[in-house]
Amino acid sequence: MDSRALTWIKTMGWTLVGLSALAMVFDRVLTLIAIHRPKRLLKATRRFLGRANRIQLWAIDRFGIDRFSESVVVYHRGRKSGVEYAAPLCVSLSDDGFVVGAYWGPRTDWFRNLQTTPEARLRYRGRYHSVEAEVIDIEDALRRVGGKSTCGCWEQGRTTQRVLLRPINEPERMGASQPSS
User: Fold this and answer.
1) Angle, to 10 degrees, between the axis of helix 39-63 and the axis of helix 3-36?
2) Is residue 75 assigned to a domain?
């Protein structure tokens, strides 16, 4: 093999190692901010993540990433404006719907919007579902998902509230099989 090719492969390998290390550090910093909630960093972090959500939503729409993960996109109405917003969220399946953790707390816009207007749409694995939101506590949420969440966000955040997104007019149970639309 050409020495230039080997040099390129080694460089790319170290670049990927560096990027994954950077991603791990970034994830840890976000976790610490979510746990300790310093006011100055919390507002800036929420603003940054709001912009990052746009990129994530674009990738979900463009490449169908949600078909292979336990994430959902919740389309909810603004509590004051009535405008439809989209929020990519981590989810755990239960027999009667989807349980979403309020990782950044109950003051996030999507959480407050769902409390005001519980009717929403949800995209899970490329399919859309009409859902109704209900705020539940963590004990009820853990009972519904069988004792352990499939979403790592539950252990990292300090909030005690979760949102149950119950499908409307869907007779098939969520936990046993893939939901139908």
Assistant:
1) 130
2) yes
